[in-house]
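Worked example 3 (structure in, sequence out).
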């Protein structure tokens, strides 16, 4: 009150007497001048110090705080609090100007307090982006949902201030507006719920390979926000999928493949069934020289000989007893080849299996996992394996099944013409 007495004495000295209007005007002038001084101190001195300490900082959170303007917005919020405090201290409670100043400062504090809260969330998002574990969570959508809730609450308080009613009345009135709110904010609400489920169950994170044929999505997840998920497809196009669709619809996440350290190879070659036969002595002697087969052939020959001898089988007829086949030996060779390959993850399932024969021959499938999950490396590993398979196949007397082509028809025509000519000449 000492300030008030000195101010009134000063007004009396200038001949303004005890004019209430002059006193209020002088108080407002003092508040404005004080606010300007505080603004200058905060923005020209304090914030410059903060800027100097954070702009060149190696700490991610320090740079994020400066870039997201958190300190600037906190300074403006503090100015509003100071102005409100000055008005309550220096103006009488019955002063007509006091309610207007209180409403304006309250709105000011709400606005910049909300913006400061947004800056804090943006800072947390930037900091989490630098963390490998936090980057896996769809935090952006959650932060956007929190922002939406904060904005709605701030709006309700602002309306309550302007109409001079308790915010509880407005909150109670939200019940009657639930249907309208659900209709207007349907996508954000569904997206918020979906974001929480995605985060809690670790179903999707940035950088994951997502495949969702219903939406034509097949690529890397680049952004997860409140309403949409962006996928950069492998053809460099962008597909946006509603966030809630990831909960209501099914999708394939290839993260498990990347984390497992192995990428599946599952491809078959089709063997011409007419090329399958028993191995002759010459064939066996030839294949004994393959170091991947030498042990297998010796063990198998011993096993077969013991079986045939124990059962008194007449081996003069190929249909009797057990014998080595070129297809079975080739399958054993491929199994040994996979086990010795430096590009196959031997801790995972690896085998060569024969599938049901059909019109296109006998499918012989390679089932294994490459130890490199990168697309280009994986394709190179897979191609090298099958390059070798196609090249080594004739060594076993086997042929790949292939439908007749134009070249085959030409050869048949040439053979027929040559045969016809030979017969005509002989006649």
């Amino acid at each position: 009150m000492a300030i008030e007495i000195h101010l009134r004495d000063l007004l009396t000295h200038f001949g303004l007497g005890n004019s209430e209007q002059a006193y209020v005007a002088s108080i407002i002038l003092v508040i404005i001048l004080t606010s300007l001084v505080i603004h200058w101190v905060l923005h020209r001195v304090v914030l410059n110090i903060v800027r100097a300490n954070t702009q060149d900082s190696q700490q991610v959170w320090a740079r994020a705080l400066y870039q997201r303007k958190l300190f600037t917005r906190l300074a403006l919020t503090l100015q509003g609090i100071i102005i409100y405090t000055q008005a309550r201290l220096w103006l009488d409670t019955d002063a007509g100007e006091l309610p207007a100043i209180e409403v304006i400062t309250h709105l000011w504090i709400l606005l910049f307090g909300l913006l400061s809260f947004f800056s804090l969330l943006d800072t947390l998002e930037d900091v989490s982006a630098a963390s490998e574990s936090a980057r896996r969570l769809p935090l952006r959508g959650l932060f956007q949902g929190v922002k939406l809730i904060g904005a709605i609450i701030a709006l309700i308080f602002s309306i309550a201030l302007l109409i001079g009613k308790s915010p509880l009345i407005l909150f109670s009135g939200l019940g009657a507006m639930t249907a309208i709110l659900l209709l207007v904010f349907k996508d954000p609400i569904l997206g918020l719920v979906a974001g929480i489920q995605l985060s809690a169950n670790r179903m999707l994170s940035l950088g994951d390979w997502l495949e969702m044929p219903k939406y034509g999505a097949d690529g890397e997840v680049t952004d997860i926000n409140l309403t949409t998920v962006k996928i950069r497809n492998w053809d460099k196009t962008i597909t946006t999928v509603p966030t809630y669709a990831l909960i209501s619809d099914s999708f394939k996440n290839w993260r498990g493949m990347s984390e497992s350290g192995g990428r599946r190879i599952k491809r078959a070659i089709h063997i011409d069934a007419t090329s399958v036969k028993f191995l002759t002595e010459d064939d066996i002697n030839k294949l004994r020289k393959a170091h991947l087969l030498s042990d297998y052939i010796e063990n198998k020959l011993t096993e077969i000989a013991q079986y045939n001898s124990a059962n008194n089988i007449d081996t003069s007829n190929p249909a009797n007893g057990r014998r080595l086949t070129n297809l079975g030996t080739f399958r054993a060779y491929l199994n040994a080849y996979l086990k010795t390959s430096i590009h196959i993850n031997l801790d995972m399932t690896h085998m060569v299996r024969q599938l049901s024969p059909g019109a296109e021959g006998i499918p012989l499938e390679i089932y294994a996992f490459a130890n490199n999950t990168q697309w280009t490396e994986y394709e190179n590993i897979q191609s090298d394996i099958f390059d070798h398979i196609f090249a080594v196949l004739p060594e076993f007397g086997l042929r790949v099944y292939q439908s007749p082509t134009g070249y085959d028809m030409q050869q048949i025509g040439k053979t027929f013409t040559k045969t016809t000519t030979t017969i005509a000449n002989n006649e």
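Notes: The radius of gyration is 41 Å. Residues 378 and 384 are 10 Å apart (CA to CA).
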